[in-house]
Design brief:
By secondary structure, the chain is an alpha+beta fold. It contains 13 helices and 23 strands. It has helices at 10-19, 51-60, 71-75, 78-84, 98-101, 103-112, 126-134, 159-170, 237-257, 290-297, 302-310, 389-402, 416-426, and strands at residues 2-7, 27-32, 42-43, 65-68, 88-90, 120-123, 140-144, 153-156, 180-184, 189-197, 202-210, 213-215, 219-222, 227-230, 264-273, 276-283, 325-333, 345-346, 358-362, 365-368, 371-374, 378-386, 408-409. The strands form five sheets. Strands 10, 11, 14, 15, 16, 17, 19, 22 and 23 form a nine-stranded antiparallel β-sheet that branches. Helix 1 runs parallel beside helix 10 (290-297). Bound molecules: adenosine monophosphate and glycine. Adenosine monophosphate is lined by residues 118, 141, 153, 183, 185-186, 190, 212, 269, 271, 280-281. The site of adenosine monophosphate has 12 residues, from strand 15 and strand 16.
């Protein structure tokens, strides 16, 4: 069987890594891929908005299965496009992808189906938004409705700031939508809860905690994610039952009723307050960098999971996970999430010993004359597994010391909340 993964981040490298463990796959392609996927797959460059171009590659290379990594092609309807051409594809259709593509769609679905989420209002008119802000308590969360590459959310400590942010969105700061969402701030602990879904059923697909802020101690601007660990210790059996019953099941039921049963990975971004889950956001794909830690912990063959979803036979599949703690630390270009330099050489990567509990997943990299260069904000994902989180983090940090790259930086404190809590409990 020939298979293609669409995307070029650490998530796609981790997916290729896991897929490569299957003997069933003859040829693996990554469109467009990076320096890491190049070692496991044939990279083929193509603009991901050019669906005709992607289809041409699929036909030429005789690709049987396609897995879509990032949200943008999903939101733009790549699954509908390829399905109409009889290509087997893993991911949700355009309608269901609105769960991530439009926060207004997601919030209205929650409201209609009593899914716990922050109270909110959706506005296209500034005066109405300002009236809502005046009647709200601070902090107020201001969000762009459409895709905004992780830059669409502001937690505003004053009503003045909320008005400024709302005005920017309504005036068209983000091309995807001029609608603004104003939300109540929920104080709690964040949890990423993953499911894999076919037409009939869904399965738990791991938990993780991401670190979105750029600075140690969770300060500074939001990023795509500076590091993650799995499993998230916050997730108890009792909490999981609530997440399934109050959030995942009603969402999937609602989409089915609307004629669009969900298929693919579903990533619920939750806030846990007093042991109750609230839905903050849905992503219609694997997380990045959460995918890197989940793929290291996944014991079941990934191709079995993918095939079960495409063939709607997930109810017969048992998914197994390693009990290890896994962590990924993201090595970024200095300046990220603002401006940063590209084309800077990264040395010593081949000095890191790689095994099943020790990987370096590439994100913004390319290879030229056998040397590795940066070409993005998030560049490498140093990913390790060990018996506990402290050992795992030490292993990641030791590997990071080996890498020789002056233009990079990373957070040394991934997992700090849990590690500090455990240490305090010991005292
Ligand atoms: P989102 O893109 O919706 O996940 O928002 C980015 C981040 O903002 C989340 O990971 C949370 O840390 C924070 N956030 C978003 N909405 C809320 C909310 N209603 N209450 C508290 N924090 C929020
Ligand atoms: N790590 C956050 C995301 O994938 O959206």
């Amino acid at each position: 069987m020939n298979l293609a993964v669409i995307g070029s981040g650490g998530r796609e490298h981790a997916l290729c890594y896991k897929l490569r463990q299957s003997k069933e796959i003859e040829k693996l392609f990554c469109i467009p891929g990076n320096a890491g996927t190049k070692k496991l797959a044939e990279n083929i460059s193509e603009d991901l908005s050019n669906f005709d171009g992607i289809y041409k590659i699929i036909k030429e290379k005789k690709i049987d299965f396609v897995i879509i990594g990032p949200e943008e092609p999903l939101v733009n309807g790549i699954v509908d496009f390829l399905t109409n051409k009889n290509i087997k594809v893993f991911g949700p259709d355009k309608f269901s992808s609105q769960l991530e593509g439009s926060k207004a769609f997601m919030k209205n679905l929650c409201k209609k189906n009593n899914i716990p989420t922050a109270n909110f209002g959706v506005f296209e008119n500034l005066e109405e938004a300002v009236t809502f802000i005046k009647d709200s308590k601070v902090p107020i969360v201001v969000k762009a409705d459409g895709l905004a590459a992780g830059k669409g959310v502001s937690i505003c400590q004053s009503k003045e700031e909320a008005e400024i942010k709302a005005k920017e969105i309504i005036e068209g700061k983000f091309k995807s939508s001029r609608k603004v969402l104003l939300e109540e701030f929920i104080e709690g602990e964040e949890l990423s809860y993953f499911s894999v879904v076919d037409k009939n059923t869904f399965r738990f697909f791991g938990s993780a905690q991401d670190h979105k802020r750029v600075g140690e101690g969770d300060v500074g601007p939001n990023t795509g994610g500076m590091g993650a660990y799995s499993p998230a210790n916050l997730l108890t059996e009792q909490l999981e039952e609530k997440i399934k019953k109050k959030i995942i099941e009603p969402t999937l039921r609602a989409l089915k009723k609307m004629g669009h049963p969900y298929k693919g990975f579903l990533y619920a971004g939750l806030m846990i307050k007093k042991n109750e889950p609230y839905l903050i956001e849905y992503n219609i794909r694997m997380g990045d960098p959460e995918c890197q830690v989940l793929m290291m912990r996944l014991k079941t063959n990934l191709i079995e999971v993918v095939k079960s979803v495409v063939n709607d036979s997930l109810k017969n599949l048992k998914i197994h996970w390693s009990d290890n703690s896994c962590m990924t630390v993201v090595l970024c270009s200095k300046g990220y999430p603002g401006n940063y330099k590209k084309n800077s050489e990264i040395r010593n990567l081949n000095k890191i010993e790689i095994d099943e509990n020790n990987q370096v997943f590439h994100a913004g990299t390319y290879e030229k004359n056998k040397k590795i260069y940066s070409n993005g904000g998030r560049v490498l994902n140093v990913t390790c597994a060990e018996k506990n989180l402290v050992l795992t983090r030490n292993k990641c940090l030791n590997n990071l010391k080996i890498i020789n790259w002056d233009d990079g930086f990373f957070r040394k404190d991934i997992g700090w909340r849990v590690i500090n809590k455990n240490e305090n409990n010991k005292r």
